[in-house]
């Protein structure tokens, strides 16, 4: 087991105009499950591949434990990787696939057999050991890919979107299995996904990347409660947080002619310079207010999910034309009392649930 | 009918009720691709046209020259086959020629397939400086006609004192530009990068990756290339007849010396041709199975 450290690690692809991974600083604890998450092209897979040794590091360094592995080939890093499309050797049986790395390492035959059998037992693959990958279902292939990593007993597991090829139901199931397995084996794990639900449910900590730059790395709870900037605010949580900008007025921000109260100190700091302030509020932290109070929105679509209902509404332009664009707002309400399409609903944000951001830097104001 | 039958079965077997609609769906969807009688007739005709020359070779090999000259020409085999083969073997060292051809064609095939797969893998998947330019150079050599190289090649072979030795035929064709290009095209499509990366993470060296991962994936293409190369080498006439003599010939060189005389002895020529063709048929039968690959299925879900 080991810690993993990214120390200003940078990867610049030839002929690219900006780095794919830009000065990544990240400390991953021993036995920790860290999830790298972000939209496609944010550099999360590249970061993982840099750690695996499949991608060069142009600046900075990567350490596994105390060892600088920046220039080490993959085989000398003591890592095991699960690929998005599993990358199972098509001509080998499940048993041979799982034992291949050990065979190359020169491990004795009976020891390979013992370790493969052990991994197969953990992953419920015992009945399939003699099958080839093409005779397996998607879920089974995924487990073989996991098994191939487990048998090596590495210091670090690397997983590159291992669930993205499974159907929705199996993905949820496997998600919990992987998380449980990781806790049980207590092997440091770096897991890449674009799915923020996976990130939130699996990770001890989650690192959010955008355009190759680390935005925030924290526990799922902290990411949700205290997003560091508007990008993280919009990326974490489903449906996404509503983020709108309006002019700062006495006591709050003016939206669609009404004033949404903002604590005085935050308002002053966020509005300094521009006189405007960006606020964020999650769909679940909105409640309806009697007419005359709260911010009016017009409902466009109502989504009934059974347990909840989501209103997709438009925040109107300000009366005096000061707030610029209309904004879309999502509201979670009780399914039985949900408003009808076309209706105007007045909203207010529950206490302490308003996030304030600087409209220029997009950073959180506390 | 289906529902009636499936209802009592439901507790016994799950496959029962599921299987019926699936089969029905298959039949409906299959209509588009199912072969009709016309397809069979056309395929049968094509097969007949393809097989006929071989059949007539066998027929001609079993006749006398006089019978062959008759009108209409004979269409049924006769009993003289072994006599003719015997005469052919007397006239030219056909036994030696077949052994020589097998040796030459096998060496060329093994060499070409191995070198082409190695080079094709390098061009398709390894990153190195000048990759594109080198590949263009290799492919460019295909545009140089063989005839252009024959004289310098012969001078070289003569200086090495290899004339009438088999290595004179084998060595110049141990790797082909076409083979390299063919394997490169196949591997760049059929071999996912992730498979190579998985092997790297698993600790395999490049050579180990080649043997354990690339070759199994490349096998269908290697079989096709092997077959094409073997055929080309077996049928090659121009260079062998320059480099070899009728004392140590390949099959084609030996056949060229058959049935000569005032009147060409067609029956003897056909008898020689027939036994010269048999080894190629064997290669077809052996390698044909390899070509139906499907080995890549299920490696990478895409």
UniProtKB/TrEMBL annotation, chain A:
It holds the Pfam family ABC_tran. Residues 4-236 form the ABC transporter domain. GO terms for cellular component: ATP-binding cassette (ABC) transporter complex, substrate-binding subunit-containing. Keywords: ATP-binding, Nucleotide-binding, Sugar transport, Transport. GO terms for biological process: carbohydrate transport. Signal peptide: none annotated. It comes from the Bacteria. GO terms for molecular function: ABC-type transporter activity; ATP binding; ATP hydrolysis activity. NCBIfam families: PRK11650.1. This is Multiple sugar transport system ATP-binding protein. It comes from Geodermatophilus amargosae.
UniProtKB/TrEMBL annotation, chain B:
Residues 1-12 have a biased composition (Polar residues). Its main location: membrane. The chain crosses the membrane at residues 32-56, 94-121, 133-157, 169-187, 208-234, 267-287. PROSITE patterns: ABC_TM1. It comes from the Bacteria. It is found in: Cell membrane. One of its GO terms (biological process) is transmembrane transport. Residues 1-30 are annotated as: Disordered. One of its GO terms (cellular component) is plasma membrane. Residues 21-30 have a biased composition (Basic residues). The keyword Transmembrane helix applies. This is Cellobiose ABC transporter membrane protein.
